[in-house]
Amino acid sequence: MTMTAQTESTPTAETVVGIGAVSPDDVVAVARHGAKVRLSDESLAAIAQTRTRIEALAADPKPVYGVSTGFGALATRHIPQEMRKQLQRSLVRSHAAGSGPEVEREVVRALMLLRLSTLATGRTGVRPEVAQTYAALLNAGITPVVHEYGSLGCSGDLAPLAHCALAVIGEGVVRDASGQQMPAAQALAAAGITPVVLEEKEGLALINGTDGMLGQLVLACHDLRRLLALADITAAMSVEGLLGTGRVFAADLQALRPHPGQAAAAGNMTRLLEDSPIVASHQSPDCTIVQDAYSLRCAPTVAGGARDTLAHAEQVAAWELAAAVDNPVVTIDGRVESNGNFHGAPVAYVLDFLAIVVADVASMSERRTDRFLDTARNHGLPPFLADDPGVDSGHMIAQYTQAAIVSELKRLAAPASVDSIPSSAMQEDHVSMGWSAARKLRKSIDGLTRVLAVEALTAARGLDLRAPLQPAPPTAAVRDAIRARVQGPGTDRWLAPEIDAVVELARSGELLDAAESVTGPLD
């Protein structure tokens, strides 16, 4: 897979979908930023070549699963040739059985790109026009309406993928590029796209993949990598504002426990605290603080473990991005073989694993915020960082908000992948629940963003209250980015809009950018 160089600020770059794997950056560019897609000539040739094998099998009187039989527990029925277009159409219609809230546009676009990537391998047996129609929908900004519930993460993300396939045949409901909901036939006509009339094997090829859970994994990994750098920043701000020491983050101490993520996090915190007048002010023999609390001292250990878990998840995503997931699949030598590659377990496991580390990073962040508010532990700051304690409550309830989110994150950390409810008359008797794991991880990522934002807001206030001492240049830059949107210490104000403003700074990457404007790229 090749792709024109692009960044998040250049959404018009083109993604060329070829026989090789799409990259995580491709997924983000197409899903979030509207990058255009184009099938490579090599892929179109491979698709056309494989299709000839399916057409030969369709003419063979011997039943072949997915080509001339029913599906799932109904695979024993041979379907006559004159009913096979109806077979594929009925498959898509019946499997488009989702329910519940509408799934986010970026998730659906990621799902469609990844299904297109599998079609481009030439291993599914569809005609070139099927793949080209998927590309056309993406390029036109047409997004099928997909619902929250309907996938068990095995036999692929069946219902979500079926809702997309339904749009490709001109049925169901979509949103156009402006976000307006309308019948798929109307949207396709307006974009000059001809609906596909599905032939043998094609309906099955469009719904049999892990694309929904994988797309959400790729997006979550992208967001979490940036959030873990932000967690190092907020931890450094808290260490500084709570008169902690940076000596514990020294490279030689970290090397005694050689986890790569821990070393990266500690290195970030060392760079962030370098040349801090606040830290220097209490680095003397008469300092009474013997050891900092775990939430300060062990911050790189927790954020580092999260990084190493993320690295494993990214490796699983890379393997999955290189896969051709379908059942049956057309092998390189032309065999059509049933397989179990559609089972979402490998993806489901890491989705659950990431939800665990997200909850723990957020939990440690909340503990640091709480220390700022307690006069028994904040080393001379006013109660709750209030302007006039008793009259003012300061950040008391901001910590409540954090605690409520962290509690929710702990519930979301309960794994989905340990559950299985058999389906299809016990033919599909063990499923992954990977889609459910992906859905809760998206909520977890949002929760971590909010928790870190509250810590940043509170730590910035704490740093201001250490005046005339000044923070380190990188943490000062983060504090200043917050101050551009939120006033400094003073009497109580309506706090919710201030929290929301910093949440947006965290989500957009502006807080990370502020720190990196001084430090350079953080690990």
UniProtKB/TrEMBL annotation:
This is Histidine ammonia-lyase. Its main location: cytoplasm. InterPro entries: Aromatic_Lyase, Fumarase/histidase_N, HutH, L-Aspartase-like, Phe/His_NH3-lyase_AS. The gene is hutH. It comes from Gordonia cholesterolivorans. The keyword Nuclease does not apply. Keywords: Histidine metabolism, Lyase. It comes from the Bacteria. Pathway: Amino-acid degradation; L-histidine degradation into L-glutamate; N-formimidoyl-L-glutamate from L-histidine: step 1/3.
